[in-house]
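Structure tokens please, single chain.
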Amino acid sequence: MSDVQERPKRRRRTPDPARRRRGMTLAGFVVGLVIGLAGGLVYAWEVNPVVQTDVSAWQLNNAGQIAWLIAVSVAWAHDGDLVRAANRLNELHWSDQTFQKVAETACELASGSYAQNQAGLVAIRSMALLAQSQGKTACASDIVLLSSPTPVPSATPLPPTATFVPPSSKTPTLGPTFTPPTQAPPTPTPPLDQFKIVRYEPYCSVKAPGLLEVLVQQPNGTGIPGIAIRVDSATGTDTFFTGLEPEHDPGYADFLMQSDQTYTVTLAGSPNHSDSLKASACTDRAGGGASVTSYRVYFRRGPS
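Here you go.
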């Protein structure tokens, strides 16, 4: 018998099948989770993004806030109500920098393609003059002549009791008085009594029920922006302006009528008003459905 004892052989450990299955299951879960999250983000951002509705002015994105500034400035240029304009601007929650930001936004628009059409120039001038009324200026006054084809109210300080920015502890001051350059005198707005209604176009569409479209034009058919439109009905009077949808037409403005109501439309301050326009029920034969009668009303300037 040998004195050397035989060493016991090591037994090879057999992998646990259950452990292997657990590892594969965990890896699959992680990969599936990553793929699911990526797919959800693609769907939410690209395929079906959330569309915001009924939001406040301060919740708008940058483009929406610029559109808000333009609308407020153009309205102020026509009604001269500085308190109303300040309260509307206050909805942006810009603290005491509101009028400075109006001036800076006008500068940005004047430096780009927005200033290449008449409607854009009207908006930029209105914004620059609104900011200038509170002593805020930027480059817009150097780039775009502030002589406007639409009447602009004189600078008026806000009363200390108004809710506006800057805070009531700061007293707003008048900006410098602007003198139009002699080489480019302002072009006056044509007298409103020179405009006549030249055409009515009633139509029926399920896509635009009860839409009152107004086009204000020069004798050659060119649209005129910045004209105040007044609509009267049994429920009251509404005023809106041409030029806020320049992609449609510089002289275009629209208003949504209520079913079965009767309306008359005129240029604000003009004695010439339309016939009674009733938003009655109709049938859109092309669209195949019930709707409300819509109208297109054309105002055209006659020879001076």
